[in-house]
Amino acid sequence: MTGGSGAGPVLLGVRHHGPGSARAVRAALEQCAPRAVLIEGPPEADALAPLAAHPEMRPPVALLAYAVDDPGRAAFWPLAAFSPEWVALRWALEHDVPVRFIDLPAAHALAMADEEPETDERPERGGGTAPGTGTGEAAGEQGEPGAPASAAAVRLDPLRALAETAGHDDPERWWEDVVEHRGPGRAAPSHGAEGGGGPEVDALAPFAALAEAMAALRAAHGDGGSDRDAVREAHMRLRLRAARREFGDPVAVVCGAWHVPALALAAARPGSGGSPAPPTVAADRQLLKGLPKVKTALTWVPWTHRRLARRSGYGAGITSPGWYGHLFEAPDRPVERWLTKAARLLREEDHAVSSAHVIEAVRLAEGLAAIRGRPLAGLAELDDAVRAVMADGSDVPTALIRDRLVVGEVLGQVPEDAPAVPLQRDLARCQRTLRLKPEAAERELELDLRKETDAGRSGLLHRLRLLGVPWGEPARSRGSTGTFRETWRLRWEPELSVRVAEAGVWGTTVLTAATAKAASDAAEATVLAEVTALAERCLLAGLPDALPVVMRALADRAALDADVGHLAQALPALVRAVRYGDVRGTDAGALRAVALGLAGRIFVGLPPACAGLDADGAVELRGHLDATHRAVGLLGQVAEETGAPDRATAEPPAPPLRERWAAVLHTLAERDAVPGLLRGRAARLLLDDGRLPGDGAERLMALALSPGTPPADAAGWIEGFVGGPDGGLLLVHDERLLALVDGWLTRVPDAAFVDVLPLLRRTFGGYDTGVRRTLGELVRRGPSGGSRHPAAGSADAAAPGFGPGLDRDRAAAVLPTLRLLLGIPQRGYEDEDGHDEDGHDESGSGRDGASEGPDGVGNGAGTTGTEGAGPATNELTGAGR
User: Fold this and answer.
1) Neighbours of 25 (CB within 10 A)
2) How many helices (H) and strands (E) does the chain have?
3) N or C terminus: which one in the chain shows less Cβ crowding within 10 Å?
4) What pTM, to 2 d.p., does this model score?
5) Contact 97, 57 (CB under 8 A)
6) d(CA 789, CA 558)
7) Residue 824: how many CB atoms within 10 A of its CB?
8) HEC string of 590-634?
9) How far apart are CA 223 and CA 725, in angstroms?
10) What is the phi/psi pair of residue 439, to 5°?
11) DSSP code of 865?
């Protein structure tokens, strides 16, 4: 029975996650008052059904089924507040009516998923893929998008077929107009969340019409391209017959509308009404015979509206879960309430939106709906109204509304009584202790590791990342670069529950599981860099019991690995581990000793490794060179602060670590066999550290750009020396180097210029626009090639990149601001003669005073003359100090 009156089961075909279907189901259940409610879902969840009435249960939630021996094989059955299955489940619990799940058991579904992988992007059945398809949202590996396509990709889409039959090209819009925007059995839009028909309305009539349409589609298209549906429907019929024997009629069945014709056969009598012969019990059992099976466990897990969205890869997803939730929950005036929400959101984001905007947007949306013949303004009309009235034609506010409201960031909640693996319970305890609540919306978390609570939060997040549960991802700190601060981006995704279940094999608590996982990873690591990165993660996660195992593996790998590239790749992570160990109060002495030994081996092996490299090898080794330079700087600082020796032996003290590294860089910068890219980079690192004599950079550049050097090698030297965002500033402020580059470039032969042009373009293209403009002006003027600054005493000479002389009028204009910043009493501007209001000489030169520098700014030397010693000092000189 699907409508009207009569004996037999009440078959309620629905679209999963539809507010109209949910309202219709509630009205139908109120009308027929069944003795039992059967819902499409895994039968193993029968024991979990009572938890749906728990006060702490808040949708969206999902049934999670996973293989006990392999938790990575999992499936979800999501339910939102506006899902018909959830409404039926809550109705049954509120009215003390038995409730059963009748779909194919998850034990078979998970096993069959391995044999016959299906894509997530499966078409909808009866307006939506059944949550209990066995693939649900996550077949096999959690149903991630991008699974390989299969025959399911050519399945029939019943919703599209019905829409095309009705003359509509948009199935979503047609379904919303027919079902979601109307109350059950009404011809006009319903504004009530629980709307039901009056006494004169048959609440079962819409289900009877939908069942008839599905029967016609199945008669024309057969199973629609899904072989597994026959197995699922056979199990549903067996469960339906058993429920009728146990409870008697009427029994209500809430399932995808596509399955209604198949279930109706279970209630049909042989030879009645010319219908096809119903499958026998024996035939259905034969279909289920020999199905593969795995041991499974089920629980409730929180879900999110974002994961209900079809764009997330969920096969039964909908385009607008937030909008559907609003339609279901709004007691009246859904359009007005929706636009009020949109206005509130835009005001929170500093958009100027008033109540007048809301009124005009409501009028426009309702007018568009009337013109387009829709019973209620839908998202298309609301989006047009918001864009025209509230956003002034911009797509930015509408995109914000689509992300925050149309999809939404709602995260469900499950009670603590729900079954869970021990690791999940320990994680929940840690979350409560550290006041770290899971949220669906992404948020940033700033941590100060000097505080006990923040240090505990950091350790928990690092341990979860080690276990493969990426609840948080490290981000760059905006406020401080100190090692005692961390910034995290947190977002809880439903599939992380599966990751927690998978990680449960390592231990019953987060600490013990992370320790065991780190020890296992150390034993399985084959590359030295992997072990050093693991050592760093152990320190960050606070795993003292795992660190000795990792250190033994590190020492073994470091002793056997002679590749300088591997050593250089491993050193930075090891040095960071030493640094963070000091910050977090962890004894990192063993790590420091290994890091110093690793650095020494790099110093010895780097010069030979840099000789004879091709272009690709030089580029790769340049990255190792930069990383080693930064690591040596940190390691040398740590060694100096702790007083640790550079060697663990009893040999005479070696030179400081940084001195030894500088000697290696000198060797690289002056060795002809080293590629120009690496020689130039070594020279730049020495220059930045102040370890080149006054003309050292000029001498090295002159040698690298001499006529005998191949143009490609010279271009590589330039890229290594002045490459990067700050390389242009070096040329701007040192015209000698710029003159050398300019002179070399004019001597490059025409045949070689085409080869070096890409290298030069890559080098100079990385500079900021202002730096490139200044370089162009300097080249147009012609570099002087002289000293860095004009000669002393030439007050009118031009500083590099600036006009000739000092514009005193413009300089005087900033004096009040400088006085304010420096706390100097205000005395007014200079007069035309260069004296202040008290008659003192503002130039500050005096008879015996210090002279101005070559750039027109005082050199800051104190005055000794009696006139120059007065209180009126040179304001520009004061600023220089």
Assistant:
1) 26
2) 35, 10
3) C
4) 0.65
5) no
6) 50
7) 15
8) HHHHHHHHHHHHHHHHHHHHHCCCCHHHHHHHHHHHHHHHHHHHH
9) 62
10) -140, 145
11) S
CA distance to 238, 568, 611, 755, 853, per residue, from 627 (Å): 66, 7, 19, 29, 39
> Where on the phi/psi map is residue 273: left (φ > 0), alpha (ψ -120 to 50), or beta?
left
SS (H, E, C) 465-531: HHCCCCCEEEECCCCCCCCCEEEEEECCCCCHHHHHHHHHHHCCCHHHHHHHHHHHHHHHCCCHHHH
Report the pLDDT value the prediction gives residue 550, as an integer from 0 to 100.
85
Contact 635, 595 (CB under 8 A): yes
User: Is the distance from CB of 254 to CB of 14 less than 8 angstroms?
Assistant: yes
Report the C-alpha gap between 415 and 157 in whole angstroms. 37
CB of 113 closer than 8 Å to CB of 292: no
Cα 79 to Cα 28, 190, 192, 656, 729: the distances in Å are 20, 23, 21, 65, 59
CA gyration radius, the chain: 37
Contacts of 291 (CB under 8 A, 6+ apart): 108, 111, 112, 231
Q: Are 274 and 31 in contact (CB under 8 A)?
A: no
- Is the pLDDT at 733 greater than 70? The verdict is yes
The SS3 call for residue 253 is: strand
CA distances to 223, 225, 269, 728 from 152, in Å: 11, 6, 33, 57
Q: What is the pLDDT of residues 446-460, one digit of tens each?
A: 888 888 899 899 999
Least confidently predicted of 92-96, 639-643, 732-736: 639-643
Collapsed DSSP state (helix, strand, coil) of residue 37: strand
Distance CA 180, CA 164 (A): 18
Percentage of residues in the chain with pLDDT exceeding 70? Answer: 76
Poorest-confidence range of 220-229, 551-560, 769-778? 220-229
Rounded to 5, what percent of the chain is helix, strand, coil? 55, 5, 40
In this structure, how many other beta carbons lie within 10 angstroms of the beta carbon of residue 768? 12
Please name the residues in contact with 729: beta carbons below 8 A apart, sequence gap of 6 or more. Answer: 771
Amino acid 416: pLDDT: 86
Count of Cβ atoms closer than 10 Å to residue 761 Cβ: 10
Nearest CA to 9 out of 168, 190, 242 is that of 242
CA–CA dist 721, 427 (Å, integer): 50
According to the model, what pLDDT value does residue 517 have?
A: 92
Per-residue pLDDT for 198 more than 70? no
- Residue type, position 253, single letter: V
Q: Looking at this protein, which amino acid is placed at residue 810?
A: R
Q: Give the ranges where 782-841 is alpha helix by DSSP (H).
A: 808-813, 815-822
Tell me the residue length of the chain: 881
**Dihedral class, residue 846 (left if φ above 0, else alpha if ψ from -120 to 50, else beta):** left
**How far apart (Å, rounded) are the C-alpha atoms in residues 794 and 531?**
61
Tens digits of residue pLDDT in 247-272 = 988 999 999 888 898 888 766 655 55
User: Which residues have a Cβ under 8 Å from the Cβ of 406 and sit 6 or more positions away?
Assistant: 319, 320, 322, 323, 379
Which of 166, 158, 122 is CA-nearest to residue 143? 122
Q: Amino acid identity of 9?
A: P
